[in-house]
Amino acid sequence: MANLFQTLTNTVKHWYIPLIFGILFLICGFYVFSVPLATYVTLSIFFSVSFLFSGITEIFFSIQNSKSLQGWGWFLVSGLLTTAIGVYLIAYPQISMSILPFVVGFTLLFRSFQLLGFAFDLKSMKIMSWGNVALASVGGIIFSLLLIFNPIFTGISLVTLTGVSFIFMGIASIMLALDLRKVKKIPGKVSQELRDKIKSIQDEIDDLKK
């Protein structure tokens, strides 16, 4: 119920930010497919810049929407983690072939779980397309796990696993952004009088919890 009140009385700011890094991860995913396995480790700088940019923008997005989105804290945690991974890859550009897939896979896995959580938040907001975000997130989780665990056992190359993981997460981020755009439009359809009543009810509920 609190989530619904929050949705009706606040507007999402900068909904397009998840769209930006969704497109960025799609570009990463398709670009990875063009790189031979022998030069895979040279992508560490490419990954670091991508993670650093998406992490910083996600931190900004979370702070801007701390009063609009109930799960804004997860955006903040994800942004901090992704930024830290980006800094780590910049500091250690010569990272080994055995470590890089684990680092990238863990980062994408965390972000995929985060997106899955937001899919269920969208469900609670009655956004009908939440299932699309959930499915894309699950795809990201599956391929991230395959990337983390030794690809030798899966019979799929590192390039394929990395590329597909980025693509699934990019798709989920883009879908989330489009759904957040729908959420942004909701408060504009609610009159100020109704907002005041909703706020009054929410305050009464909060007082009862104390």
TrEMBL record:
Presence of the UniProt keyword Iron in the record: no
Swiss-Prot/TrEMBL keywords: Membrane, Transmembrane, Transmembrane helix
A GO term from the CC aspect: plasma membrane
Residue intervals passing through the bilayer: 15-34, 40-61, 73-93, 99-120, 127-149, 155-178
Domain of life from the UniProt record: Bacteria
One protein family per Pfam: DUF308
Keyword Transcription assigned: no
Name of protein: Uncharacterized membrane protein HdeD, DUF308 family
